[in-house]
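Q: I have 83 residues here and want to know how they pack in 3D. Can you give me a structure?
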Amino acid sequence: MVSYAKNRNIMAILHTEKLSWPRKVSVFAGVALIVLSVILSASTLLGVLELESFAVLGHSGIRTLAGIAVAGCMVAAIGSFDE
C-alpha cells in the first residue's frame, strides 16, 4: 500500500492522472530519455565515459547526447498534449 501511494504522488507531479495509458507511457518514456541524457552528460563531465564514444555517423558526441534530450522532450510533449 505504501508503494501505491508513492506511485500516485509521482503521477500527480507529472500531471498524468487524466491521461490514457499510451499517453502516460509516452510521458514517462520522454522523462526517462531526459534523465538518461543528464546521467550520460554528467558521466562525461566526471570522466567516467569519453565523449567520443557517443559519436555517431561523423557527428560529435555532444550532439548525440543533446539529441537524446531533445527526443525525450518531444516524446513527453506529444504524450502530454491536450486536444
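Q: Anything worth noting?
A: Residues 21-45 form the longest helix (25 residues). The chain has three helices and no strands.
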